[in-house]
């Protein structure tokens, strides 16, 4: 008979979950390396490749393949006009902004005014610091005579320096996702092997915010609410979207009565954000606010359903109107997520709600750039670690990645070779529907927790920190009465019972 400790769903069971024994797609894919792990697979030994190390190495390898995919642009396409970099699908903002935002001239972000209409760097402060550090490293390399003094070489080196720094961020993301759920490190292979991750990693500087957010999720899973807040504050100083995670955390802490932990997280986030932003806000207020004014003034742009509307109707939408409509849709989505969180038969897992709220923000936004998929990939791996659904979504994103560049090739080439607007609209619709599909299966898991793969062994929220196994103190709509907590089975076939609230 199994021991009481083995069958308790609140016990920190150390048995590693093997996706190749639970997921048919993972099992089929494992045939490339010899098939699923057997019962007697070696699990001990010093110096062996642990799951976390394997995931990190795979992530670095995939990142390197993404760099190779940019090789035509690195060699010549970035410097021969717009069309070439689009036909080779290797565009990156990084070398262009090295020139366009004054780094090549030694200008300091936020403090030095840029020539032209942009006036100041339009990125949050921590991202601006990241860009500036890369510029200093690039300057140091130039002083050492590497790779050369001409402008093309400086742009190439600047991209290479940024790629190296972003590779570190990619490894951090993979390791953090692998360690967030102690028993499911292999789920991080979803991140490491995601094709959209490799293709979009060096388009922009999003991986900085994504790595800080992944580290924050790891800290929360270890019960370190203040560290979670500090990292979320830093991530928000690099990109706006991480602050959205405080909303789901509020709902779950409200339902579980964990007000102290939420207060620590909130105060940590506010403090970290202010510590980064206040010096620039005080010394260069015009430069500091450029990111926020630019976000408000930005017109409807690539990848959004708003662009489909304007292209199909042939009529534009005033920026004030689209801002208001997008805000209204986001508020409605958040209201739906809040209702779901407080009325679900079991308290949702933090990763599930975090994925839904970030996806809602992207879907309702007036721009859905191809690299925004990076925001969702780590959250998707934690929220829905199911290879079939993940790969369906990734296929849609890869199609869109190719679609946007071939559309831009069509609009910038003299003979219009590429994807016409009608084809691009289909690509937009496909990647929006792919994200909606993943949202739908996450919502289904919340409404039918017995179908949630993470909870199959009787777990509650293994990466939820203090929320894991906590009793509910506030629910709506009789959610407590609708929680049957049916029996489940572990990976070894041991029957367990769902824990009590």
UniProtKB/TrEMBL annotation:
Q: What is this protein called?
A: Glycosyltransferase 87 family protein
* Topology of this chain in the membrane: Multi-pass membrane protein
Recorded family membership: Belongs to the glycosyltransferase 87 family.
One family name in Pfam for this protein: GT87
Give me the stretches of Polar residues compositional bias.
1-12
Entries under InterPro entries matching the protein: GT87, UCP010361
Keywords assigned: Cell membrane, Membrane, Transferase, Transmembrane, Transmembrane helix
Keyword Oxidoreductase, does the record have it? no
Subcellular location(s): the record lists: Cell membrane
Extract the ranges annotated as region (Disordered). 1-21
Q: Where are the transmembrane segments?
A: 50-68, 157-178, 190-220, 226-252, 264-285, 322-344, 390-408, 428-447
């Amino acid at each position: 008979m199994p021991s009481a400790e083995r069958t308790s769903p609140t016990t920190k069971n150390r048995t590693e979950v093997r996706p190749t024994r639970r997921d048919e797609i993972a099992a089929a894919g494992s045939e490339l390396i010899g098939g699923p792990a057997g019962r007697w697979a070696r699990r001990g030994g010093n110096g062996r490749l642990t799951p976390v190390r394997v995931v990190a190495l795979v992530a670095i390898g995939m990142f390197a393949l993404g760099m190779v995919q940019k090789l035509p642009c690195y060699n010549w396409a970035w410097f021969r006009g717009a069309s070439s970099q689009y036909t080779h699908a290797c565009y990156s903002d990084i070398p262009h902004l090295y020139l366009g935002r004054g780094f090549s001239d030694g200008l300091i972000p936020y403090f030095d005014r840029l020539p032209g209409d942009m006036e100041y760097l339009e990125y949050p402060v921590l991202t601006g610091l990241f860009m500036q550090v890369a510029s200093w490293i690039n300057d140091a390399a130039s002083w050492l005579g590497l790779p050369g003094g001409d402008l093309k070489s400086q742009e190439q080196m600047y991209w290479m320096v940024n790629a190296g720094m972003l590779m570190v961020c990619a490894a951090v993301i993979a390791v953090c996702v692998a360690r967030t759920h102690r028993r499911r490190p292999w789920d991080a292979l979803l991140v490491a092997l995601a094709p959209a991750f490799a293709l979009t990693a060096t388009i922009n500087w999003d991986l900085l915010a994504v790595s800080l957010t992944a580290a924050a999720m790891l800290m929360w899973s270890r019960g370190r609410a203040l560290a979670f807040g500090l990292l979320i504050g830093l991530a928000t100083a690099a990109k706006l979207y991480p602050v959205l995670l405080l909303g789901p955390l509020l709902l779950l802490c409200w339902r579980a009565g964990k007000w102290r932990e939420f207060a620590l997280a909130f105060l940590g986030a506010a403090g970290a954000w202010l510590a980064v932003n206040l010096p620039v806000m005080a010394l260069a207020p015009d430069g500091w606010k450029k990111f926020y004014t630019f976000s408000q003034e930005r017109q409807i742009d690539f990848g959004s359903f708003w662009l489909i509307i304007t292209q199909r109707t042939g009529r534009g939408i005033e920026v004030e109107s689209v801002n208001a409509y997008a805000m209204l849709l986001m508020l409605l989505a958040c209201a739906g997520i809040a209702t779901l969180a407080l009325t679900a038969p079991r308290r949702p897992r933090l990763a599930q709600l975090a994925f839904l709220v970030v996806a809602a923000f992207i879907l309702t936004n007036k721009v859905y750039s191809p690299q925004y998929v990076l925001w969702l990939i780590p959250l998707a791996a934690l929220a829905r670690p199911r290879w079939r659904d993940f790969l369906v979504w990734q296929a849609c994103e890869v199609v869109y990645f190719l679609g946007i560049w071939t559309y831009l090739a069509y609009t910038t080439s003299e003979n219009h070779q590429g994807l016409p607007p009608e084809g691009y609209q289909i690509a937009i619709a496909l990647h929006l529907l792919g994200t909606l599909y993943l949202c739908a299966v996450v919502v289904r898991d919340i409404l039918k927790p017995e179908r949630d793969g993470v909870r199959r062994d009787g777990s509650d929220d293994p990466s939820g920190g203090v929320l894991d196994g906590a009793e509910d103190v506030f629910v709506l709509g009789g959610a407590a009465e609708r929680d049957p907590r049916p029996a489940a089975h572990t990976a070894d076939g041991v029957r367990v019972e769902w824990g009590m609230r």
